[in-house]
Structures are given as C-alpha cells and as structure tokens.
Amino acid sequence: MNTNSDKWIGFKHLENLGISSDKLADYEVLCLPENIEIETDPDKLIEAGETVHLYKILRSQGIKVYSLQDFGYDVPSYERRGDTIYFGVIVIQFVVLPIVTAIIANWITEKIFHKSIKIKIHVVKEGNETQIDYNGDGETLLKILKGLKG
Amino acid sequence: MPEITRIVKLYDKSINDWTLKISKQQYREARLIATKKVKQCRKIILFDPNEEDLKNISLLYGIAFRGLEELTDLAEIVAEYEWYKKHESVERAWFLLQNCKDRFESSLEFVMVTSKIKETISSFLDIIEKDFFALFGPGLYISPEIVIKKSVCSICKSDYRSCPHLPNHIYNGKICRSEPTEIGPGNCIVILQNPKDLRCRLWPWHQEQAKEGLVLHDMPLIISFKIDDFLD
Q: Shortest CA distance to A75 belongs to which of A54, A92, A51, A95?
C-alpha cells in the first residue's frame, strides 16, 4: 500500500487524454482501464472484464461514477478465461468508500467468494492518495477495504 | 387462489413427480416431466400476457427444470456399465454436470421443494464430480482470451454500459447480461487449471505427442452457455 500526495500517474494520463480535473470535479468513483497507469495511447487502453458491471451497479446506487466511455473513448473489454476476477483500476473518493466497500462486499460474498480478485484501488482523501494493488482472495480484500474506512 | 400460487404449486408437484420417476430410474418419464415444464415456463415468459412476478418465478423454475432435464440425461449416462471408458459419454457427462451446477446454483434456492430434494440433487452432483476427480484428476482447460469491442444489453438491446438494466438481475422473466456484438482475438489461448468455464476441458484423448510437440485436436475452444437457453 502506498500513500503520497504527489499526483497519481493515472490522473496525468487522464489529463493527456483531455480529461482534466475540471471535468472530473464531481466524481465519486472512476472505473478506469486496467492499464491506465502505463498506457498513454488511447487505442491501446483496455478495460478489465468486470469493470462495466461494477460501473453499472455503482451508478444504480446513485454514485457519481465515470469511465472513459463517458468522455467519448471506446475502450474495449478484455475477457480472460481464468477464475480470477479483474476489476481494473478504481479511483474512490474517501467519502463514498463505505458504500463502495459494501457493494464490493456484497458482490464478493454472493458471487465470487472462493475466487481470486485482481484490482487496483486508489482512494482519494483530502488531497492524499492511497493505492492498493491487490491480487488475492475476496476475504482479505474485504478486510483491507474495511481497514481503510477507519 | 392467486394464479401465481397455483402455478408454483404445480411446478413443485412436477419436481416431486420427477423425483419419484428418477428414483425408479424411469429416465424417459422423468425427462418428459421436466421437458413439459420447461415448455410451460417458456410460454408463460415469452407468449402469455402475465404479471412480471409470474414471469420472474417461471424463469427460475424454467432454469431448474432445464437442470432436471439435463440431470436426467446425466443420471442415465452414469448408470451405464463402465460409462467412464467411453470418451463420448465422459465428455457429455462432464458437460451436463457443469450445466446442472450452473443452473441449480442460480435457481434451486428459489424453488419451493423440500430441502431433502435439494440436498439429494446437490449430493448427486457432488458424487459425480468426485468420481470425475478420482478417474481423471483435476484436469486442464483451454480457452482463448477475447476482446469485446461492443456489447448490448440482453433486455433492451441498447448499449450495455449506458442502459439502466443491472447485470444478472431479472426483468420480466429475462436475465440482464452483456451480449457481445463485436469481438476480437485476445493475446493468447490459455491452458489453465482454474478456468472461468469448466466445459472446455482438455481430455487425454484430445492430446497427441507429435514430433513438433504436444498436439491438441477435436476440442472446443470456447462454448457459449446460458442457464436460460430455453428462451432462445
């Protein structure tokens, strides 16, 4: 887990794509391509398989959630065939972390408790950012998310 | 009695009837019961002007009855003497086992039959799965990774991301899911032990040691399966 106040590379890449912080002013969650931190060419960005499902569920709960498609980018989804669940890169404002954690917890408990999960979570709180690059079981991920809520 | 209660009672009675037939190894009769009910569920969902609640419960029963149809086929295969020595029977039984697991996982908790029937179904599938493990080991599985460029919602046929329907929720007797309309190849074809879909299993008779290395033949790379395929 990393915590720092420098601008995260993902935000820099979003700016390069013309998605400035002004355009993201009211976001609570960003569901981003899984390679947003390493890829600057928009044609090479890919979205993890479960990202769109998470995006839809968050939106249905009244959370202000954006993905690159909301800014006119067509990002294809990469379907893997193993039993690992790929959520991609998720940026979460700290104020909605409890709600997002509850949604992910519900999802994991109902559908995929036995499976492993790969997710990058970027929590933004008052200018500071905490990043978790997680690859493991659902139970441990939930413990980490609950720990973040403080 | 409300229509929905009456129909659900009839569904439950049919499951009890199916249980009696299968316990006597009357496969043909058992299959007929399940097939008839699958057709009834399909009609209620697709063609009759019914309430949404009835359509939704009919979807869950329809999935369960499709499971019972395939469970009948599976029971008939494994009742045969030395079924596990016939490649075709092994592949078919494995496929049916996965279908049954998927269908019952989604539907069995919602149907109103006794817990004894549910336990019998689950333990039968567990036994078959253990038999497969004992006979053939955990197995290897093959599947290509794919890129989905565009997809639509199975309910409204509009862009999946922007429509209001939620994944795996039931609307008017139908399940919301993403239906890819434009796909491309991924980076690789994967051979793995823990696949998303267990149906694409690599059996020993699909492998041949050639001069160039291991050659795989006569096996599916990707299988399209839907628990509610009776609505297609």
A: A51
